[in-house]
Write a structure and sequence with these properties.
alpha+beta, about 80 residues, two-stranded antiparallel ribbon, DHS-like_NAD/FAD-binding_dom, 3 helices
Length: about 80
């Protein structure tokens, strides 16, 4: 149909922020403790602000803090 499907040159220098997905957004999984949470509108609002949600289980255990770079920092092993 005349479409160039894989034009990598146009995306090579793309500076867009992306979310790496494995599966769907039906559930979210903590990268630290692997707890799974159902995706809710609250989480959607957090992502729309360019932020990442904290894991409530890790917060209760004091395992990590949320920093301005949207990364979860492990405080102890």
């Amino acid at each position: 149909v005349g479409l160039e499907l894989w034009n990598f040159g146009s995306i090579k220098n793309c500076q867009a922020q992306v979310v790496q997905l494995h599966g769907t957004l039906a559930n979210l999984q903590c990268r630290v403790c692997t707890n799974i949470y159902s995706f809710t509108t609250e989480y959607c609002d957090i992502f729309m602000k360019g932020e990442t949600p904290n894991c409530s289980a890790c917060e209760k255990r004091g395992k990590y803090i949320h920093n301005k770079k949207n990364e979860n920092l492990i405080l102890d092993n």
